[in-house]
Specification:
heterodimer; A: 268 residues; mainly alpha; 72% helix; 0% strand; globular; B: alpha/beta; Rossmann fold; Alpha-Beta Plaits; 2 domains; four-stranded antiparallel beta sheet; 12 helices; 37% helix
Chain lengths: 268, 329
């Protein structure tokens, strides 16, 4: 697996060579999401006569959405978002097919390299904001909260990769798969609790959603970092996340193998 | 070693009527047509041999190469490359082949070549001393040492192609597919790459298949040719045999000592023409059996300052084989 480390390191080198694009988009997005949620949650709580939401301070709700925003940026790298489909459309897949290493493994190493860099940068930005602007209202995360968060982020990076891979592998048959990827992003926003904490959803919805692949992509890591997740909830969430990762890994491989049989290597 | 038996490929392509109605109709009732990219083809390539795979655009050259490299599945037929069926894509097979696509970079544009090559070392699991020895050989032969730490995207096309070759050959493949490796390069770079490929072949003795639209590549590198026309093999044989078999004519060009004898010469040989771009230069195309008789006749009629008998241009013959329906191998 030395090649995996090399691809991963190569991707990190590339991100280090071009760091400013990510910083710019991260800071802009955190500023917009943070300020928008600050005004929104204050307005909602004011309209409820100053009654907040159980377990959340206003700052906690703002931090929650900022965490889920950074999670999205960590899980989905702009240069990798549609990389597999582009390889198929442009014929760049050819070069990977002649390497004696698995294609998805190669792509995952690239994805992980980018994600780790994004995690480092996002963590620094979020930590800076939390420490200097929000720690008076929301205590800084404990070591166990950070541990839970990092473990869940790693599973969510893998899960998002295999889900996107399964969708992108349909590019062997469909000329446009962008819409499917965007649709899935909306599903995460709605069903994964990217915009609103899942604990504010009706209980029946929470009970159904906990078995789906969505919460570990947004709500669970955010709640873990805010110190709201017990070790039991963490273990169940991780188990479900790993289960879905295996399911989508199998699906992505199945779709890819079926597609590559009819692949014509167009563009080269 | 490459063995190909009755290999063929047919693409199934969707067909759509023009306009909005055509687009809507194709959503519900898509028509498919079969396009025969490659008719059954059989041949072998021995270790140390370079064969030229020629054909006009769309003749099936790249399709054939992609099948032999394991990128694409055939519709029918069999192929063995180093004892493996390519499209099974076993790692042991991939360790023994390389493909260079002149129009498609295999390197990572944002990384320096050194990083890309180190990554390939890991991908192919190369032992450090063997890797370093081979890399030194390539860097010295292709004069690339000073560019090793430069980002690939900042290199010229010729420099990039040289690194593409290094990247493809660093694991010392036994079978190499070269798809237009000199396309778009200046004459100096083309020569350097041809010379390198010749040296590489002599040193490492791989089986190589080369496609190119440049006759210079073919003449410098290939002893044997496969010529495809619209997916069919129309010629398989040695390069020298192409001239012997198809060059049935000869071109005579001459300059007269006394230009006033031009009219007499044209009356005797009505096919003789004066070159429109080089006044005074006379040209005549004849059958190869008539050469000595014609030359003696010309010399009897008029003294000349210069006279040459030339074979037909190989490029023109191959072009005719690639494109003309009437010509067959």
């Amino acid at each position: 697996m030395k090649w995996f480390r090399s691809v991963l390191a190569g991707q990190i080198h590339m991100r280090l060579a071009y760091p400013w694009g990510f910083w710019t988009s991260l800071i802009a997005e955190l500023f917009i999401v943070g300020s928008m949620n600050w005004f929104l949650w204050n307005a909602i709580i004011d309209s409820r006569g100053g009654v907040g939401f159980p377990g959340f301070t206003t700052w906690g709700l703002v931090l929650y959405t900022m965490i889920t925003t950074t999670l999205r940026k960590v899980q989905v790298n702009s240069e990798q978002f549609i990389g597999i489909a582009e390889d198929i459309y442009t014929g760049s897949l050819n070069k990977y097919l002649v390497y004696p290493v698995p294609y998805f493994g190669f792509r995952f190493a690239m994805h992980l390299g980018s994600s780790l860099m994004s995690l480092l940068q996002s963590g620094a930005a979020l930590g800076f904001f939390w420490y200097f602007a929000a720690r008076h209202a929301q205590p800084l995360p404990t070591v166990s909260a950070i541990t839970q968060f990092l473990a869940m982020v790693m599973v969510s990076i893998g899960l998002r990769f295999v889900i996107n891979s399964a969708i992108q592998a349909t590019a062997f048959w469909f000329e446009q798969i962008w819409a499917l990827l965007v649709l899935f992003s909306f599903l995460i926003a709605l069903l994964g609790g990217q915009l609103i904490p899942l604990s504010l959803y009706p209980v029946w919805a929470q009970e159904i959603l906990q078995y789906t692949p969505f919460p570990i992509l947004a709500a669970l890591p955010a709640e873990a970092l805010l110190g709201r997740l017990s070790w039991l909830q963490f273990s169940v969430g991780m188990g479900i996340g790993c289960f879905w990762s295996l399911i989508f890994y199998g699906l992505a491989n199945f779709v890819f193998r079926a597609g590559v049989r009819d692949y014509s290597g167009i563009g080269a | 070693m490459i063995k190909v038996r009755e290999l063929q490929k047919t693409y199934r392509i969707p067909e759509k009527d023009p306009g909005l109605i055509g687009s809507v109709r194709s959503l519900f009732n898509r028509k498919w047509i079969d396009r025969h990219a490659l008719a059954p083809i059989s041949f072998e390539v021995a270790p140390g041999e370079i064969i030229g795979l020629l054909g006009a655009n769309g003749a099936g050259k790249t399709t054939l190469i992609k099948m032999l490299a394991g990128i694409m599945h055939p519709t029918a037929g069999t192929a063995e490359v180093q004892g493996f069926i390519p499209w099974e894509r076993k790692n042991a097979f991939k360790q023994q082949i390389a493909i260079v696509l002149g129009q498609k970079s295999q390197l990572w544009p944002d990384l320096p070549a050194a990083d890309s090559l180190l990554l390939l070392r890991e991908i192919y699991g190369l032992e450090w001393t063997a890797y370093q020895k081979r890399l030194d050989f390539f860097l010295d032969t292709l004069d690339l040492r000073k560019l090793l730490k430069t980002q690939i995207r900042r290199l010229s096309l010729g420099e990039r192609m040289k690194f593409e070759l290094v990247a493809a050959l660093i694991h010392e493949p036994k079978v190499i597919f070269l798809d237009e490796p000199t396309i778009g390069l200046d004459i100096g770079s083309q020569r350097a790459i041809r010379s390198f490929l010749n040296d590489y072949r002599k040193t490492f003795k791989p089986a190589m298949i080369l496609t190119s639209h440049y006759m210079e590549d073919v003449e410098a590198l290939c002893e044997r040719l496969l010529i495809l026309r619209e997916g069919e093999l129309v010629y398989a044989g040695s390069l020298s045999n192409v001239s012997e078999r198809y060059a049935q004519g000869r071109n005579i060009r001459l300059r007269l000592k006394d230009e006033s004898l031009k009219r007499v010469l044209i009356e005797t040989y009505p096919l003789m023409r004066e070159d429109s771009e080089q006044p005074g230069l006379m040209r005549l195309h004849i059958s190869k059996d008539e050469v000595s008789e014609t030359v003696l006749g010309i010399l009897k009629l008029a003294p000349v300052t210069d006279l040459a008998v030339e074979e037909e241009d190989l490029g023109n013959i191959i072009d005719a084989l690639q494109t003309r329906k009437g010509v067959r191998g």
